[in-house]
Amino acid sequence: MDRIRLVGGNELRGEIPISGAKNAALPLMIASLLTDEPLVLHNVPRLADVKQLERIMENHGVDIAVHGRRRGEEDVGQRMTFHAADIVDTTAPYDLVSKMRASFWVIGPLLARCHEARVSLPGGCAIGTRPVDLFLYGLKALGAEIDIDEGYVVAKAPKGGLVGATISFPKVSVGATHTILMAATLARGTTIIENAAQEPEITNVAECLVAMGAKISGIGTRTLTIEGVEKLHGATVEVIPDRIETGTFAMAAAMTGGDVLLKGARPGHLQSALDILAQTGVELTEEAEGIRVRRNGNGIRPVDVDTDPFPGFPTDLQAQFMALMTMSDGVSHIRETIFENRYMHVAELVRFGADIAVNGQLATITGKSQLKGAQVMATDLRASVSLVIAGLAAKGETVVNRIYHLDRGFERLEDKLSRCGAEIERVAG
Ligand code: UD1
């Protein structure tokens, strides 16, 4: 298994191009199941999760093409075409779905277009129980009949297809919002989704669906209204820049000190995280090309944070922010309100010498001026990267084991960091 070896202590200086967002690329790929015409996506990141979803899409009969690079596009993601001319199989099998939770979301488009779907209950990062009750509630409201059979959700639309309904989610769910939004585009009549997720990735998908001929209003708000249409058509859509990658590198620069331009980053997509970072004493400037992050010599102030659905502080940046707080000048608190088991990085951060106490949802971090390099283990996607950025600021050598989690969600991580002066390499085997 590959490892990452790094020696901490170097400031980060230079430019980091931000990749396309994994959490937008995956549902955009899934949206291609809604039409028999090609959907062209620009700026798709080269990630293990994208590859895994490609396998699932191919199993449904989707033709996938990756287009070659164009001049002047060195730092741009892949241009890909997804063409679901004929869906040959409406089953998403366990061995494919269990590796990545988002693949469960195919249930929405399959049910809407083919009127049936048989999708394995999902797997993904082990960061909590992550049930699918909200998905099933929404699909049932659209008229679907649902059975659970040998670990599969078996869903059937009524004769003539799904029917529009008002769906009021008791809890905000990104995945359930994507799924019901996609399903409703081809339902008969009007669907209203109340308490919808407002994440920028939802907006990216909603705008893609509109480009495909869907009728959606309220995009970017808590209430989405969808008027079903008979058919969707092909479109060309760009994947938004990854706000979690942006926030991760911003925190890395905050920890190491230095001056980094995050190229292509959109401040509005992570304003809450930028506001919190500014409170820690980091200097952030919006430039035409992206966001500049600077910390020159001054200490890191402790700041308390609760994770929340967008526009709140993202749970996907919680581990990275905790790494930063281990170096603050005092005591800070983090409350994880989205997932019940998302503190697996704590035991690993403690190996760097950090002082962190967890009590239920609440973590108390007592800052230290200097972390020391350590052997650590990646446990989930975002936790893994918190170990990398802790290692960049720690004294001496760090080895991060089991980094396959990182490859699921971070494109060319070592390359991007080493170009800014970090001493970091991948060790094979
Ligand atoms: C998505 C993101 C993930 C991020 C998370 C929260 C992708 C591919 N993944 O995951 O990176 O951490 O949003 O911002 O976009 N829940 C239920 N019942 C359900 C569905 C969810 O109780 O049927 C709960 C979950 O257990 C969790 C909360 O709702 O406590 C939020 O989860 P959700 O927004 O659905 O996360 P994902 O869509 O899986």
UniProtKB/TrEMBL annotation:
GO molecular function, one term: UDP-N-acetylglucosamine 1-carboxyvinyltransferase activity
Reaction catalyzed: phosphoenolpyruvate + UDP-N-acetyl-alpha-D-glucosamine = UDP-N-acetyl-3-O-(1-carboxyvinyl)-alpha-D-glucosamine + phosphate
Residues where 2-(S-cysteinyl)pyruvic acid O-phosphothioketal is found: C125
GO BP annotation list: cell division; cell wall organization; peptidoglycan biosynthetic process; regulation of cell shape; UDP-N-acetylgalactosamine biosynthetic process
Keywords for this protein: Cell cycle, Cell division, Cell shape, Cell wall biogenesis/degradation, Cytoplasm, Peptidoglycan synthesis, Pyruvate, Transferase
EC nos: 2.5.1.7
Active site per the UniProt annotation: C125 (proton donor)
Keyword Kinase set for record: no
Organism superkingdom: Bacteria
Ligand binding (UDP-N-acetyl-alpha-D-glucosamine): R101, R130, P131, V132, D133, L134, K171, V172, S173, V174, D316, I338
Family annotation (PANTHER family): UDP-N-ACETYLGLUCOSAMINE 1-CARBOXYVINYLTRANSFERASE (PTHR43783)
HAMAP family for the chain: MurA
Protein name (database record): UDP-N-acetylglucosamine 1-carboxyvinyltransferase
Source organism of the structure: Devosia ureilytica
Organism classification: Bacteria, Pseudomonadati, Pseudomonadota, Alphaproteobacteria, Hyphomicrobiales
